Amino acid sequence: MNPRPLFGKYGMPSSHAQFMGWFATYFSLFIFVKTMLSVGSLDYVWKTFCTGVAVCSSVLCCASRIYLGYHSMAQVLYGVVLGAGVAVLWFTVVQVFCEPYFSQIYQWKISELLLLKDMSRIPNYMWFEYTSVRQETKKRLRRKSS
Q1: In this protein, which residues make up the domain named Phosphatidic acid phosphatase type 2/haloperoxidase (predicted)?
Q2: What proportion of the chain, given as a percentage, has pLDDT over 70?
Q3: pTM of the predicted model, to two decimals?
Q4: Range(s) of the domain holding residue 118
Q5: Is 111 a domain residue?
């Protein structure tokens, strides 16, 4: 086992806080902007619940870094702010500059070999995928029994 480094302080900013700030922010943006889980108020409740879980997980991780003495409050706050800022920037870049080209990229041979899917135009892609697999399964079961 290697001994711990001889440094007295952990990094600035906290990489754990940075990742958790990024994840909670990006996840929230993606859930509220890009997905439609159902129609009506249940959609908003479900999105709020999922986002709340992501934010609570981030808060718990950041609090643990301070509680365990791995980072100061400033290191954690800078990490969260940096992570959240990068998440907003990345989400914006993808939506504004990359998404218009998804349909073209989807047509490339390498995209087919990698089994890439462009689901950016499908509002409730989880339901779409679920119903597609269900229909295909029924079709194959009918063929098998015939």
Answers
A1: 9-95
A2: 89
A3: 0.72
A4: 15-145
A5: yes
